[in-house]
Amino acid sequence: MLKKGFRLRKKEDFNRVFRSGKPLFFSEIGCRYLVGTSPVRLGFSLSKKHLLTAVARNRVRRVLSEAFFERQSEWPETGDIIFFTTGKLAHIDIGKGRALVNHLLESLKKTKKQRV
Question: What is 4-115's CATH number?
């Protein structure tokens, strides 16, 4: 489980990121990120429609969190990130989670370069 300081917990925070964050889509998982709001926090909005059991939803949370924390040195200084499902997800392993996080961090670096 993520520590409280690394989690998005309030509905207002989720709404703010969904409303004004930038989308990024992978195969069955997408994310929205909003740079420059607070220390880096992660949120998950995983649908029961796409991941039928709580075990599957929790596995996705754990895999993505672990992959994200492995690359802690490359995080942006601030921002909120929400991961969500866009389709049925058969299986996710740590390799696929790392690939998703790598793609996300590369996109954040490009965004940062464009803002400067």
Answer: 3.30.230.10
Q: What is the pLDDT along the chain (116 residues), one digit of tens a residue?
A: 677 778 888 999 899 999 998 888 877 888 898 887 678 888 999 999 998 899 989 998 888 888 888 887 777 777 888 999 888 887 788 888 888 888 888 877 776 655 54
CA nearest neighbour of 106 among 82, 71, 80, 66: 71
**Ordered DSSP codes for 56-96:** HHHHHHHHHHHHHHHTGGG--SEEEEEEEESS------HHH
**Structural domain boundaries in the chain:** 4-115
pTM of the full structure = 0.84
> How far, in Å, are 46, 49, 68, 70, 83 from residue 11 at the CA level?
15, 21, 22, 27, 15
Contact criterion met (CB below 8 Å) for 30 and 86: yes
3-state secondary structure (DSSP) of residue 111: helix
